[in-house]
Write a structure and sequence with these properties.
This protein is mainly α. Helix content is about 35%, strand content about 0%. The model has no long low-confidence stretch (mean pLDDT about 90).
Length: about 45
């Protein structure tokens, strides 16, 4: 991965207790995110 790139796996694939992707994204003052509509739905639903 290039410097500064943080790959995120689907929340449903993570072990219990790990930080949700929505929370990981909110930690930064700005972000460029590549996500599909289904991925967005899943992330919001998981949160």
């Amino acid at each position: 991965m290039p410097a500064g790139v943080i790959p995120l796996s689907k929340d449903a694939e993570k072990d219990k207790g790990r930080e949700a992707n929505a929370d990981a994204i909110r930690e930064h003052p700005w972000a460029v995110i590549g996500i599909t509509p289904g991925g967005t739905y899943g992330m919001v639903k998981q949160k």
